[in-house]
Write a structure and sequence with these properties.
Structural class: alpha+beta
Mean pLDDT: 90
Largest sheet: 5 strands, antiparallel
Order of helices and strands: EHEEHEHHEHEEHEEEHEHEEH
CATH class of the largest domain: Alpha Beta
CATH architecture of the largest domain: 3-Layer(aba) Sandwich
Helix content: 25-40%
Number of strands: 13
CATH topology of the largest domain: Rossmann fold
Number of domains: 3
Low-confidence stretches: 1-16
Oligomer: single chain
Distance between the termini: 11 Å
Length: 292
């Protein structure tokens, strides 16, 4: 599936015809900036939007009625229900943004780490294995580290570990963990938000800032001037995973910008006109699909 669309406004009468868009979203995201803003923008432009919450519906696996006449689907979330419905849509030839395979490739954070390393994208040092086995590979200088679950989400389940002894003693419920070098002293993250080949840079407080810097007053997300290096890094990440709508979580260090992880369809906090940018991308995507 192509990922080379620039934002555009469709102007011809044929292009303005009402599209039927399916938004497949986990319930927890329905009240977020996105996809709420994108849905409102599409409706304002006269398009029909059906929001599908997998937790609110039951489906007969042989009955495709629910996806009849859908021109394109957009997913917000990575639950097994969302992934299942995306697979269903794709088997019926409905174009999907992001594709199921792309979302699954960043859902599994262990596979994400392997893919980033194979692509030569700079990341903090990362180890895979049980915390106890990883502990025996680390030197004292490697600590502190962050321990992450393979299918973690929104920083749930993260553990900050300061020593080998703590890592060996860590009670971990999964057979595998992602252990990543922690770079202390950074209270903010760099977020690179992408819609197709459009990229924005935003400074946001680190999700760990409240724990590591208890006296820090958090700031609102701040839009930053884009650099060529950041744009190139973000687009490389999109190409690795086949994503169209995505965010790249980064750290700025003395050694350069490091990628922590890649996430599908973020909130696009502080991105100006994000609602319209998203709906324009979707419309351009549908137009291109029809001309291929």
């Amino acid at each position: 599936m192509k990922n080379n669309l620039e934002p555009m406004v469709l102007e011809s009468p044929a292009d303005r015809r009402c599209l039927r868009v399916a938004v497949i979203a986990e319930r927890r995201y329905l009240s977020h900036l996105q996809p709420r803003g994108m849905v409102a923008s599409l409706k304002d432009a006269g398009h029909s939007v059906v929001v599908v919450d997998p937790e609110e519906m039951a489906f007969n696996a042989g009955d495709h009625h629910w996806l009849r006449n859908i021109d394109v689907s957009v997913a917000r979330g990575r639950s097994w229900g969302v992934l299942c419905l995306l697979r269903w849509l794709e088997t019926q030839g409905v174009p999907t943004i992001n594709p199921r395979a792309a979302i699954a490739s960043v859902h599994n954070k262990a596979e994400m780490a392997v893919a980033l390393a194979a692509a030569g994208i700079p990341t903090p040092r990362t180890w895979l294995g049980s915390p106890q086995m990883v502990a025996h590979q680390l030197a004292g200088k490697d600590f502190p580290v962050i321990v992450k679950p393979v299918f973690g989400d929104n920083c749930h389940g993260l553990e900050c570990v300061a020593s080998r002894e703590q890592l060996i003693a860590l009670q971990w419920s999964e057979p595998l963990a992602i252990v990543q070098q922690f770079i202390p002293g950074l209270a903010s993250d760099l977020k690179l938000y992408c819609i197709g080949r459009r990229v924005w840079a935003v400074r946001k407080p680190s999700p760990l800032a409240g724990v590591l810097f208890p006296n820090l007053v958090p700031h609102a997300p701040q839009l930053l001037p884009m650099t060529a290096a950041w744009r190139d890094l973000a687009l490389r990440c999109g190409e690795v995973f086949g994503l169209q709508l995505f965010g790249v979580d980064c750290l700025q260090t003395e050694a350069g910008t490091l990628v922590i992880e890649v996430n599908e369809f973020p909130n696009y906090s502080a991105v100006p006109g994000a609602d319209q940018e998203l709906s324009n991308y979707l419309l351009a995507f549908v137009k291109q699909e029809r001309t291929v």
